């Protein structure tokens, strides 16, 4: 398989949590994966951002299903 991004993450957004998997390609060519779950409050999302920076993630893809905005905002 051809690697397009050597340091990337996938984010699955839920109502109360955000599940993130970071995929890194090591110097030996092996793929390493780490998955963590964060809350959706500001402090939690800041911690998520710090983790992505620490891992030097360059690309992120996210998925969100459902509607999370209050009905008055739709």
Explain what this protein looks like in three dimensions:
With 74 residues, this protein is of the alpha+beta class. The protein has one domain. Helices cover 18% and strands 42% of the residues. It is built from one helix and four strands; from the N terminus they run E-E-E-H-E. It has one helix at residues 42-54, and strands spanning 7-13, 17-25, 31-39, 59-64. The protein has a four-stranded mixed sheet, covered by helices on one side. The longest helix has 13 residues, at 42-54. The radius of gyration is 14 Å and the shape is elongated.
Structure summarized in a few sentences:
This protein is of the alpha+beta class. It contains one helix and four strands; from the N terminus they run E-E-E-H-E.
Q: State Rg.
A: 14 Å
What do the pLDDT scores average to?
A: 87
Number of domains: 1
SSE class: alpha+beta
**SSE order, one letter for each helix or strand:** EEEHE
- Biggest sheet details: 4 strands, mixed
Shape summary: elongated
Question: Order of strands side by side in the largest beta sheet?
Answer: 3-2-1-4
Instruction: Give the DSSP E fraction (strand runs of 2 or more residues).
Output: 35-45%
Helix content: 10-25%
Which stretches are poorly predicted, pLDDT < 50 over at least 5 residues? none
Alpha plus pi helix count = 1
Distance between the termini: 42 Å
Number of strands: 4
Name the assembly state: single chain
Properties at a glance:
four-stranded mixed beta sheet; elongated; 74 residues; alpha+beta; 18% helix
